[in-house]
Design goal:
mainly alpha; 3 helices
């Protein structure tokens, strides 16, 4: 997947991958369509962080979930 283009499709792909990596039980509450391409750079930073870490602590997962909540469209 070429993530160099700031498209809604890439935003949705990254959100799905983040949800999969975090094994989020509340993943249904985090719909990819709830995120805008306007937050692309922030979402990419979160995506890049978690994809490059083999394991995440509970506190890291909570912090990431909180950040994604902040980035969601109101």
């Amino acid at each position: 997947m070429d993530l160099s283009n700031k498209t809604q499709e890439n935003v949705e792909y990254m959100i799905e991958e983040i949800k999969n990596k975090l094994r989020m039980a509340s993943g249904a509450a985090m719909q990819p369509s709830s995120f805008s391409v306007d937050q692309y750079d922030d979402i990419f930073d979160v995506y890049d962080l978690i994809m490059n870490k083999p394991n995440l602590s509970i506190s890291e997962v909570e912090a990431i979930a909180s950040e994604l909540g902040r980035l969601r469209r109101k």
